[in-house]
Design brief:
The protein is mainly alpha-helical. It has a 3-stranded antiparallel sheet. It contains 7 helices and 3 strands; from the N terminus they run αααβββαααα. α3 runs antiparallel to α4 and α4 packs parallel to α6.
Length: 205
């Protein structure tokens, strides 16, 4: 078996394993409260199972598509994500004081999740055509500014966890692209200072 094919199979197996584990955890956490409340103990398991099946179908479809074609969709994905992240602040469903979800019929959609994927594709496509940033100023324009704008929108929802995940994804791409350690350290120090400030001003974090 070719090395790349073997790694793809491992990635798929890990994804399926995590999905199955997640379904078990959803049922474990929700079945008893639902039963005590007179509801269907398997309601959340069934709903999450539908999402899992849809996700696996998308995984199969994506595996049959040349990923290089995504570079042409990168600008559209980023603009769409930015619009939805703005929209959720205005018309999003408010839950426990946070506006993170858009209602689409019976389903809820979190624009910040699309933003993570969109930015990953856009940053990867951008760095595939250019040399990795060699200074903090090169890192800031346009990658730092774009990522920072999305982080600002998402943290206002508020959702610090997604911001951290987004920064880690982009940081990983920068590492793989060959960005010097000193540039990553400079960018990381700025991000860390902002994250600490966000945690400090909001006690529950």
């Amino acid at each position: 078996m070719k090395k790349g094919l073997f790694e793809s199979h491992i990635l798929i197996l890990v994804t399926l394993g995590l999905t199955a584990f997640g379904l078990v955890m959803v049922y474990s956490a929700t079945s008893a409260p639902a039963a005590l409340g007179g509801g269907d103990p398997g309601f959340y398991l069934k709903r999450q199972g539908i999402y899992a099946v849809l996700g696996i179908a998308l995984l199969i479809a994506a595996s049959r598509t040349d990923f290089r074609a995504l570079r042409y969709l990168a600008p559209i994905l980023v603009l769409t994500s930015a619009f939805l992240c703005l929209a959720v602040l205005a018309v999003g469903e408010q839950v426990n004081g946070a506006r993170r979800w858009l209602m689409v019929g019976p389903f809820t959609f979190q624009p910040s999740e699309l933003a993570k994927i969109s930015l990953a594709i856009w940053v990867a496509a951008y760095l595939a055509r250019r040399q990795a940033p060699r200074s903090l100023s090169e890192l800031m324009k346009p990658i730092g500014v774009t990522v920072g704008a999305f982080c600002a929108l998402i943290i206002v929802e508020p959702d610090l966890g997604t911001v951290i995940a987004l920064v880690l994804v982009v940081g990983t791409i920068l590492v793989v692209s060959g960005t010097p350690l000193k540039v990553l350290a400079a960018g990381g120090s700025i991000i860390s200072a902002v994250a600490i400030a966000a945690i400090w001003v909001t006690p529950y974090r």
